[in-house]
Amino acid sequence: MKRFFITICLLMIAGVVAAQEDSTAQPVVEPTEEALPPTVAVLWDAANTAYINNRYADAEAIYEQILATGETSAKLYYNLANACFKQEELGRAILFYRRALRLQPGDADIRYNLSVAEARTKDTIERIPEFFLVTWLRALRHTMSATAWTVWSIVWLLVALSLVLFYLLAQRLSLRKVGFYGTLAALLLFVVTTWFAAASRTEQIGEKEAVVISLSAAVKASPDRASTDLFVLHEGTVVEVTNRLGDWCEVMIADGKKGWTEQSRIEVI
Which element (helix H / strand E) includes 67? Predict the structure, then answer.
């Protein structure tokens, strides 16, 4: 029976290692000016030159051209957000800072610039208090990207399987205890990092959060221009999209208030 479990563990370790090698055989490289296709590299140079020379509208237009080619990266969104911010396009700046942050949640520069932009928004909304542990776990999850958490989950799975082997092969009782409790700890960390990876991935591809990009957006009681105005949101405010109906979106703000606004007034992050 012990040989059976040892064989199973060895096969699982080999399978995980092989899967990891397959997944990293062709790594996704963050686009750099050197790694980009020639046409896009020329656009990068032109956009950066325009930005350095304070031609922010030209820089924004060229960064948008790069996006249109299908290239996306935290760096691209960050540069585009900076160009928008320099032109006082607060809504678009916050939109692109947040898109950059989804791809690179641990970047201090993106977080700082986002905080500066959000400090200039007109709407002051008091958030609904939440349990401190939820806030702490979210902050911890945002220290790394979904890819990084996935790598850590694989690492802890390998550690857990190795400790199972250590437990099965150890002769002394004290060493077997180390293997047993070490396995439990590694499995716990595997579960936590896997959950963080899944949550980060869901957040990254989700379409629930949006930013008000127009100067103002009336939030109404129903999806109808003739309905009663409940409140007005201003450029740069972040909302959660809870429902959609035609050209209208039901949105909820941080204090829990809900209402309907025209889809053209907001843009999904």
Answer: helix 56-68
Closest CA to 207 of 253, 246, 258, 242: 242
Helix (H, G, I), strand (E, B) or coil at 54: coil
pLDDT tens for the chain, 269 residues: list them: 555 445 555 445 555 444 444 433 333 334 454 555 557 888 999 999 999 999 999 999 999 999 998 888 999 999 999 999 999 999 999 999 999 999 888 899 999 999 999 999 998 888 777 777 888 888 888 888 888 889 999 999 999 988 988 888 888 888 888 889 999 999 999 999 999 988 888 777 777 899 999 999 999 999 999 999 999 999 999 999 999 999 999 999 999 999 999 999 999 98
Written as one letter, the residue type at 221 is A
| Separation CA 238–CA 210 (nearest Å) | 6
* Cα atoms in the 13 Å half-sphere on the side-chain side of 180: 7
Locate tokens 């790394």: which residue?
Answer: 144
In this structure, the number of other CB atoms found within 10 A of the CB of residue 121 comes to 19
Beta bridge partners of 220: 229, 260
Residue with tokens 């002394």: 172
In whole angstroms, what is the distance from residue 187 CA to residue 156 CA?
Answer: 7
| Polymer length in residues for the chain | 269
Give the pair of three-digit tokens for residue 142: 């945002």
One-letter amino acid at 268 equals: V
Q: How far is CA 207 from CA 38, 160, 173, 240, in A?
A: 32, 35, 53, 9
CA-CA distance, 69 to 39, in Å (whole number)? Answer: 10
Cα angle vertex 229, ends 228, 233, to 5°? 160
